[in-house]
């Protein structure tokens, strides 16, 4: 019995129930409890036609957009059903009454309603199953794309920071051990805490602090960085490394555009499950800022926001008065997604 209710068998179960209902409505007379065997044979004729349409014409012609062939064979099936009723069954069961006259309208009234009911059910069932398959496929594509975008973040981050670490090592800078320590902390977060789709916001903020400390070591006395957090993260979760991309971008491009007086301001505000993230860095007019919002990191973070927070975020990125400004507003939740 349990196998009968499996997903792949439900179609036949429900279609069978519908066929039984049609059968009972036609066979039993509501005015007297009498089972009419002759009418049962007529209904069986309709059901055979419906089965042929459902499992041959629909998949072979209609679903393959062969509309004309479907219409042609449908007319043939209905015509054969009418022929069997009028010239075989009526002559067999009603030779002295119904067999003596032929009214196509009366026969159509008998044949068409059961066919519409049975074929309509099958068509609706197939449409629902197709929609479910499309949703499943879209979800699989979205998850695959998300994994791909996530996989690109780590190499992008390592590429930037290992280059800087290599430069300090060549110079035998005393800052090198501190850089290695901060880098190991960030990599530990990436390897062990970022396996889930969502991580604790508090951990993401701590990781940002580590990253900012690492970047400040590299920045040295050439600039000033401010980082403020307002509100409590609580149990809120966020897609990992979303915010880091913007911070990394600021540290990457601000020093590249000028030799000193680098200013980077970062703030996070949490209010009623809404995260407000603001990041800005100054730059010189002579620097090439047209490529700032075209890098791999920013493209990926936009894609991840679309996948994780559809219709739940607002992102503004724009250069303004020698400042490159990023504002992100995103609605978070405390659900854990593996």
Topology diagram in text:
Blueprint: H1 7-27, E1 28-29, E2 32-35, H2 37-62, H3 67-93, H4 104-170, H5 176-193, E3 199-200, H6 201-219, E4 223-230, E5 237-238, H7 242-257, E6 262-271, E7 274-282, H8 296-308, E8 313-320, E9 323-331
Parallel strand pairs: 4-6
Antiparallel strand pairs: 1-2, 3-5, 6-7, 7-9, 8-9
Helix pairs in contact: 1-2, 1-4, 2-3, 2-4, 3-4, 4-5, 4-8, 5-6, 6-7, 7-8
Explain how this protein is built:
The chain is rod-shaped, with a radius of gyration of 35 Å. The chain contains eight helices and nine strands. By secondary structure, it is of the alpha+beta class. 61% of the residues lie in helices and 16% in strands. The chain folds into two domains: 3-134; 174-331, Heat Shock Protein 90 (2-Layer Sandwich), CATH 3.30.565.10. The strands form three sheets. The chain has a five-stranded mixed sheet, with helices on one face. Strands 1-2 form a two-stranded antiparallel ribbon. Strands 3-5 form a two-stranded antiparallel sheet. Helix 7 (242-257) runs antiparallel to helix 8 (296-308).
Oligomer: single chain
Number of strands: 9
The named CATH superfamily of the largest domain: Histidine kinase-like ATPase, C-terminal domain
**Count of helical regions:** 8
Order of helices and strands: HEEHHHHEHEEHEEHEE
Question: What is the CATH third-level topology name of the largest domain?
Answer: Heat Shock Protein 90
Q: Helix/strand/pairing class, anyone? A: alpha+beta
Percentage beta strand: 15-25%
Low-confidence stretches: none
Q: Largest sheet at a glance?
A: 5 strands, mixed
Q: Average pLDDT across residues?
A: 78
- In helices, the fraction of residues equals 55-70%
Strand order of the largest sheet: 4-6-7-9-8
- Label the overall shape: rod-shaped
CATH architectural name of the largest domain: 2-Layer Sandwich
Query: Structurally, how many domains make up the residues?
Result: 2
Termini, distance in Å? 34 Å
The first-level CATH class of the largest domain is given as: Alpha Beta
